[in-house]
Design a protein that fits this description.
- The chain has 427 residues and is α+β, with helices and mostly antiparallel strands.
- Helix content is 31%, strand content 31%.
- Strands 1, 2, 3, 7, 8, 9, 10, 11, 12, 18, 21 and 22 form a twelve-stranded antiparallel beta sheet that branches.
- The longest helix is centred in the C-terminal third of the chain and has 20 residues, at 407-426.
Length: 427
């Protein structure tokens, strides 16, 4: 790519909308947006990768070897995704459940152009005329026009009765010593669904702005993502992961009740035990690729508040071994512990037995690798997957099942996590 060129931007939010309207005709694009959340080490305010000079699309089997060859050339941007069923390669497992969306287990592309937007300017990296691209974006509307499409009718793949029965069976596995914690998910879906992914993304992020959001298109398949969770970030030789485990409902209409909910989350022995189990799992995973003695917990049981929920988030950090790249990190740590449970391999076998649907891109990851080798990846949760060709729409929600879980409360947690998506689709 040519040397990046920057252009002044007067209104960040309006220009972001213009970019979204402009990018819709492209068959491949990836928007990553932290919705202006401020962290000690934030991602770019807004990044958009457009078009593909070349790409790799593969299912579990020989993905990591192929990725090493594809990503071997330094100095290029890479964007793309990792699907949950890469577990079949990392842990020698299998998947037999149905998948109606059709994302491959892995897809990465070298973009034709990368747009980085912050509060003051847009920086364009491309081989084309950057000024012409900026002018084209500026010519688009700053409004996201809502389509008059019919509301989507959402169905549950698992009945409430079956869900409660499965949770009790999972607790029997825990009692027998098969595992300690299981992240069990259920699918909500719609057939013959006609939506505008851009409109749905805009509506969802208006109601539920989260720091690891994404709008990702791979031909006829879309991921509309409002994730609050980071999988990992690589900065130089440092790697850190921020698993979420622990959820409490917010009450924005009553600050006293909201503060009480937050405090109850802080003090919950159940939520803390779930969180520390995942922290131990992540520490173990990172120790495979980090220098001995460098893996440490920067923050344990941090409470972060989002529009609908309070979340318990811990941060684990380590220093990578020499000659270790982002692919080595993925191979050692994927899928992320917050979406599996412990011990990881046995739990994923149990998940496959009791879940009705392939997870696909859900509980996988979307992210980027910068030309200098730094990388940042989210966890694909609070997300809608959509196949525009088959008109099939899907989203999943789950919770961590332990021996002490109350099945009815776990079901309610799933509904809480799915509530905002259902509101956006059914309105």
């Amino acid at each position: 790519m040519k040397k990046p060129i920057s252009f002044p931007v007067d209104n960040f939010k309006e220009f972001r909308n213009k970019m979204l309207n402009w990018v819709q005709p492209f068959n491949i694009f990836c928007l990553l947006d932290n919705r202006q959340y401020q962290f000690q080490s934030p991602a770019f305010e807004c990044m958009l990768a457009v078009g593909a000079k070349r790409n790799i699309e593969a299912d579990a089997g020989n993905v990591f070897h192929s990725l090493k060859e594809f990503a071997g050339k330094q100095g290029e941007w890479l964007f793309g995704h990792l699907g949950y069923d890469l577990k079949n390669e990392t842990e020698q497992l299998s998947s037999m459940n149905d998948d109606e969306i059709g994302f491959p287990d892995c897809h990465f592309f070298v973009p034709e152009m990368v747009l980085q937007l912050n509060e003051k300017e847009l920086t364009i990296s491309c081989d084309e005329d950057a000024e012409a691209i900026f002018t084209a974006i500026e010519s688009h509307s700053a409004l996201i026009l809502q389509d008059p499409a019919s509301p989507v009718t959402i169905k549950s793949r698992i009945s409430p009765e079956d869900y409660l029965s499965i949770v009790k069976k999972l607790q029997q596995h825990i009692l027998r010593g098969d595992c300690y914690e299981v992240n069990f998910c259920q699918e909500f879906y719609a057939t013959n669904a006609v939506i505008s992914p851009l409109c749905v993304y805009s509506s969802l992020l208006h109601l539920s702005p989260n720091p690891f959001s994404a709008l990702y298109r791979l031909n006829d398949r879309y991921c509309i993502c409002a994730s609050p969770e980071r999988y990992f970030k690589k900065e130089g030789n440092t790697i850190f992961s921020q698993p979420i485990k622990g959820t409490a409902k917010r009450n924005l209409a009553n600050s006293e009740a909201d503060n009480l909910s937050r405090q109850n989350l802080i003090n919950s022995e159940k939520e803390r035990s779930e969180n520390v189990m995942v922290v131990d799992l992540v520490r173990n995973d990172l120790s495979r690729v980090c220098k001995e003695g460098t893996v440490r917990v920067d923050e344990l049981f941090g409470i972060y508040s989002f529009p609908q929920v309070h979340q318990m988030i811990s941060t684990i950090r380590g220093d990578l071994e020499e000659n270790t790249d982002w692919i080595d990190v993925v191979k050692a740590t994927f899928p992320m512990g917050s979406m599996t449970g412990a011990p990881k391999k046995r739990v994923m076998e149990i998940i496959e037995r009791y879940e009705y649907t392939k997870r696909g891109l859900f509980s996988g990851s979307i992210g980027y690798i910068a030309p200098n080798g730094d990388a940042d990846f989210n966890v694909v949760i609070r997300s809608i997957l959509y196949n525009a060709k088959s008109k099939y729409l899907s989203f999943q929600a789950g919770s961590a099942i332990t021996f002490y879980s109350n099945p009815e409360e776990e079901y309610e947690e799933c509904l809480l996590k799915a509530a905002m998506i259902k509101l956006v689709l059914e309105c």
